[in-house]
Amino acid sequence: MIEVHLGDITRLQVDVIVNAANRHLSGGGGVDGAIHRAAGPELSEACREIGGCPVGEVRPTPAFSLPSKRIYHTVGPVWRGGNLGEPELLCSCYRHCLSLARREGMRSIAFPAISCGVYDYPAELAVEIAVEQVQEHLDRDSPPFEIVFCCFDEAMAELYRQQLDALVRR
Q1: What b/e readout covers 108-134, taking b as 16+ CB neighbours within 10 angstroms?
Q2: Pfam families annotated for this entry (predicted)?
Q3: Do the beta carbons of residue 71 and residue 16 sit within 8 Å?
Q4: CB atoms near residue 97 (< 10 Å)
Q5: For residue range 49-78, what is the model confidence (pLDDT) as tens digits?
Q6: What are the structural domain ranges in the chain?
Q7: What gap in Å lies between CA 166 and CA 42, rounded to an integer?
Q8: Phi, psi of 35 (to 5 degrees)
Q9: For the stretch 81-93, what's the b/e string if a residue is b when 16 or more beta carbons lie within 10 angstroms of its beta carbon?
């Protein structure tokens, strides 16, 4: 099941929330900062112990004060025109998160719009990749089975809805 949710990812009651992190896992603005603030100071300490995360990969932590079980920190690519491997790296973010969730036995996961904030990935292209990767995962019939695209504003939520509708019509 794929759902589009408009609201605050830190309030979702899912097994995993995905953080659109920076390479240092240091918290920042946008979703990353909101997750760090809501999870509490223990998250910053856990991230310091991990030491960082390469672009396209994922690093898990406990969720601390959040209603979820885990936080998966993934680092999306900075958009530089699309010819420097950005699509492959963004695909990798989704694949790694979904694969880790399956290995950890998680049944539900919520994604923000990875790389669509300060990393300037064009929203339409990022949404297409996100939906494609999630659908490929679900087609293999492996958990997590409940996937939420959590959007901060209506415009982004509408992009996800349109992409999901297009998928259904294929």
Answers
A1: bbbbbbbbbbebebebebbbbbbbebb
A2: Macro (PF01661)
A3: yes
A4: 27
A5: 999 999 999 999 999 999 999 999 999 999
A6: 2-156
A7: 41
A8: -65, -45
A9: eeeeebbebbbbb
Tokens of residue 64, six digits: 């601390």
**Parallel, antiparallel, or unpaired for β 58-62 and 16-20?**
unpaired
For residue 79, what is the DSSP state? P
Fold of 2-156: Leucine Aminopeptidase, subunit E; domain 1 (3.40.220)
Task: Return the residue matching tokens 């994604």.
Answer: 111
Could you tell me the two tokens for 104? 């950890």
pLDDT of residue 147: 96
Which residues touch 31 (CB under 8 Å, ≥6 apart)? 9, 19, 20, 112, 117, 152
CA separation for the pair 67, 38 (Å, rounded): 10
For 126, the token pair is 């990022």
Q: Which residues contact 49 (CB under 8 A, 6 or more apart)?
A: none
Q: What is the amino acid identity at position 120?
A: D
Is 38:66 a contact under the CB 8 Å cutoff?
yes
pTM check: above 0.90: yes
32 is catalytic: yes
List, for residues 117-136, the tens digit of each pLDDT value.
Answer: 999 999 999 999 999 999 99
Annotated catalytic residue within 8, 32, 120, 153? 32
